[in-house]
Design a protein that fits this description.
ABC transporter involved in vitamin B12 uptake, BtuC, mainly alpha, globular, 4 strands
Length: 329
């Protein structure tokens, strides 16, 4: 019971990022972001322009949807490596229905229902069958990615202008609709995790699931819905990418799960659950976006970008392990 109270106690003063004197995640990220911006500005005068900042935001908005879902899932003690494959299959499925003449709204809803089903498959394997989430979602990553190639016979599906084009390509106040959607999901997620009863329960479950079961919480049910929510957000990301480019690709988002996981861990979310915030994830996304943007502006080869991202992921996970005072045994 005491562990549960501690987990819930950490949610007090929810919008103040420095709840503990030894929690320097947010200020550390802000300092790192400021340093990166100054460095990028020195390398390219184009960096500090409104258009460039809008480009960074639009570039991270679609993957940011998946990062929000993954943050919530990790906080609850879960993990999903199949998010990119779910997004690719959902976009492919929606494109096939649009080309078959299905109404845009119907095709979107059916595609998201398909994504939710994939989330339920992950949840059943992990929560009910008690399979390690890394192994389980590596398996479903291959399964869902393979299905995306099967249903498309390995080809891209061109849909051109369609009912979803406004979602992917449209603008409001000069900013892409997808960026507004991401901002809305992010703000709602921050409120949900900090002020809702379920959000508090997610932190508690991730911190100590046994204690939560002892006080009557439906731990398995809540975790299952976390996987479903993760899959739905991945599905929305898949539809957004499909509608933005006018093409659905079975290889879409390939490797994106690593970039998203890097941003989430960089933002201070614990691999073991019960700790982290969407504010931290947002800053982690921006840092990754600034680094990528800086590489593009300065023509850094793609293989060096991969090296840097790998180093950042290792550092982020290592810092989390040191902060928890433990590690792999």
């Amino acid at each position: 019971m005491s562990d549960l109270l501690v987990a819930l106690e950490d949610r007090q003063h929810p919008w103040w990022p420095f709840r503990r004197l030894n929690d320097w995640t947010i200020p550390g990220l802000l300092v790192a972001l400021a340093g990166l911006c100054i460095y990028s500005w020195q390398r390219s005068p184009y960096f500090f322009t409104v258009n460039n900042f809008v480009n960074i935001g639009e570039a991270l908005s679609i993957r940011g949807l998946m990062a929000v879902g993954l943050t919530v899932l990790l906080i609850s003690g879960g993990l999903d490596l199949s998010i990119a494959a779910v997004a690719a299959f959902t976009g492919m499925f929606a494109a096939m229905m649009i080309n078959a003449g299905v109404n845009g709204a119907v095709s979107g809803l059916v595609a998201l229902a398909c994504a939710a089903t994939m989330g339920l498959i992950n949840a059943f394997i992990i929560v009910r069958l008690r399979v390690n989430p890394i192994i389980a979602t590596l398996g479903t990553l291959l399964l869902f990615r393979g299905l995306a190639f099967v249903v498309s016979e390995g080809d891209n599906i061109v849909i051109g202008v369609n009912a979803w084009s406004t979602f992917g390509r449209g603008e409001a106040l000069g900013i892409k609709v997808t960026l507004w959607v991401f901002a809305g999901v992010l703000v709602f997620g921050m409120w949900f995790m900090r002020h809702s009863f379920i959000g508090n329960n997610l932190y508690a479950i991730g911190g100590n699931p046994s204690a939560c079961r002892n006080v009557g919480m439906k731990v398995d049910r809540i975790r299952m819905w976390s996987y479903v929510a993760m899959a739905i957000l991945s599905g929305i990301a898949g539809i957004a990418l499909m509608s933005r480019g006018g093409t659905a690709q079975p290889a879409a988002f390939e490797g994106a799960e690593l970039e998203i996981i890097t941003a989430v861990f960089l933002g201070g979310v614990a691999l073991t659950g019960g700790r982290g915030s969407l504010l931290g994830t947002f800053l982690g996304l921006i840092i990754i976006g600034v680094i990528t943007n800086s590489f593009v502006l300065t023509n850094v080869p793609i293989y060096w970008q991969m090296v840097v991202r790998g180093i950042i992921l290792i550092l982020a996970v290592s810092i989390d392990s040191i902060r928890r005072g433990g590690g792999y045994r």
